From TrEMBL:
Name of the protein in its database record: Peptidase M48-like protein
PANTHER family referenced in this protein's UniProt entry, alphabetically: M48 FAMILY METALLOPEPTIDASE (PTHR22726:SF24), METALLOENDOPEPTIDASE OMA1 (PTHR22726)
Peptidase M48 domain location: 164-350
The organism of origin for this protein: Sphaerotilus mobilis
GO biological process, one term: proteolysis involved in protein catabolic process
Length: 353
């Protein structure tokens, strides 16, 4: 008859008593393991039908909670498992899979595929659906607060001369007038061009409320040894790109998606601040950002075609920002980039007619 050494906790005292377990008929018996404890450890027994055996595992002790508030903890796991089999316990399918390296690897692969699928398609689709339900007033509030924060920390008043500012505003008005149907509805954020001094940062930012902020350094880069017609083409492409972000509500959608991915990561990984959780969230956000940039580039190309302009000046502007197409993708492409391969973007504009 199988016996298993165990520790008995009576539920009233922290002291553990050494016992030996055995099965007799339909009951589990616990008897003192040595004669010294026999006088204060009476033989106890419990009906097998009322016991809930713990799942078998490869390592670590087994513990069973007893109906009377006491508990048993295994000393010899193999002997305990033999006693459990004698009591009629059999591993469930889940336990067998947990003990199988093949089953564990398959389960891990399925989880990773599910996480990747949700992050690649599920979360962006959900974020787009939620954004579509949010009123435009949220875009306006978010844009106003973002601009106020940037004006207080990153931006200074523009130093671009009045003539250049007037030219930019003229091109902005022309771009807005040629927006595709559906992009200039009453609910869509109105476009507004703002110039700011951001130091050496040559960039443009699309805010959710429709504000397009262009840095003085970007204006200087556009005007640098550029033919007047090409200046207009660069401005049309740049403003068309940023307005694409505005009217596709990319800023608000990315905010919603970040909230969803954080919640999803916490649900799956427990602690969203850990490396294991933050890595897939970061990669997912960067992948969506690259896709948003591709969509905005398509809007820029549509504006250039509507104005009868070539995409070559935009390709030149990107080369000024990131270097020649032959070298642009070396350091800026890949999973850790928020923008598509710059060589790919340059080629896309250069090939447009």
């Amino acid at each position: 008859m199988d016996q298993a050494p165990a520790l008995l906790y009576d539920g009233r005292s922290p002291r553990a008593r050494a016992v030996r377990l055995r099965i007799d008929g339909d009951r589990l018996h616990a008897e003192a393991a040595d004669a010294i404890d026999a006088h204060d450890t009476p033989s106890l027994n419990w009906p097998l039908a009322g016991l809930r055996w713990p799942e078998r595992q490869r390592h670590g002790p087994r513990q069973m909670d007893l109906p009377d508030g006491a508990s048993l903890q295994s000393v010899d796991p193999q002997a305990w498992d033999a006693l459990a089999r004698q009591a009629g316990q059999r591993d469930s399918r889940v336990v067998r899979l947990q003990q199988s390296w093949r089953g564990t690897c398959v389960a891990l692969l399925l989880v990773l595929l599910a996480v990747a699928g949700l992050q690649r398609w599920g979360v962006p689709a959900a974020a787009s659906g939620i954004t579509a339900l949010l009123p435009p007033s949220i875009d306006r509030t978010l844009g106003e607060r973002t601009l106020a924060a940037l004006d207080g920390q990153m931006f200074q008043p523009s130093r671009v001369d009045a003539a250049a500012q007037a030219r930019l505003q003229r091109v902005m008005a022309e771009v807005l007038a040629r927006l595709p149907p559906g992009r200039a509805s009453a609910d869509a954020p109105a476009g507004r061009l703002l110039l700011r001094d951001a130091g050496r940062e040559a960039n443009a930012w699309a805010l959710p409320d429709g504000s397009i902020v262009v840095s003085d350094a970007m204006v200087a880069l556009i005007l640098q040894d550029t033919a007047p017609a090409d200046v207009d083409a660069m401005l049309v492409g740049l403003l068309g790109h940023e307005l694409g972000h505005v009217h596709r509500r990319h800023g608000l959608t990315m905010l919603v998606q970040a909230s969803l991915t954080t919640a999803f990561g916490t649900l799956v990984f427990g602690d969203a601040s850990g490396l294991l959780a933050s890595a897939p969230l970061l990669l997912g956000q960067l992948a969506w950002s690259r896709e948003a940039e591709r969509e905005a580039d398509l809007d820029a190309l549509a504006q250039l075609r509507a104005h009868g302009l070539s995409g070559e000046p935009m390709a030149v502007l990107l080369e000024r920002l990131h270097g020649p197409a032959s070298a642009a993708g070396r350091a800026d492409a890949g999973l850790l980039s928020s923008h598509p391969d710059h060589a790919e973007r340059i080629a896309g504009f250069r090939q447009a007619r």
